[in-house]
Design brief:
Length: 131
């Protein structure tokens, strides 16, 4: 699924990402269970670059998104500290609550912009009617 304006980052995984990077991610996350084993995006990039892989923080987010939506690693969550596999239902619930809040915030921005477009369109119509 591509997101308009972010196609480069949201399209399907490339062959390289799928065949080279994805297996490394899946193997690496097996050891990242619980919040004390969290790994940041930056650390993932450093580790993989040190091993000779071509990687960026954008590609890390893209691959993790793929892993999560495809269910390749269950309960893989993200915090401000990084990524890890949750050990408890409560950790996943807290993460889901945070995702919902972010979703609601994005929706609020979209609705505000839609109202602004509608207001602008009405203003333009009124202005053009006066000529």
């Amino acid at each position: 699924m591509s997101i308009e304006g972010f196609e480069e980052y949201t399209h399907d995984l490339s062959v390289y990402e799928s065949e080279e990077l994805l297996p490394r991610f899946i193997e690496g996350f097996k050891k990242k269970i619980g919040p004390f084993n969290v790994i940041s995006n930056a650390q993932i990039v450093i580790n993989l670059k040190n091993d000779g892989y071509k990687i960026s923080s954008v590609i890390v987010r893209k691959i993790i998104h793929h892993i999560r939506i495809k269910g390749l690693i269950e309960n893989l969550i993200a915090t401000s500290s990084g990524y890890y596999i949750a050990r408890t239902v409560e950790e996943v619930q807290v993460h889901c609550k945070s995702l919902k809040q972010r979703e609601d915030s994005i929706r609020a921005v979209r609705l505000a912009l839609t109202r602004q477009i509608q207001k602008k369109s009405q203003t333009e119509l009124n202005f053009n009617d006066g000529e």
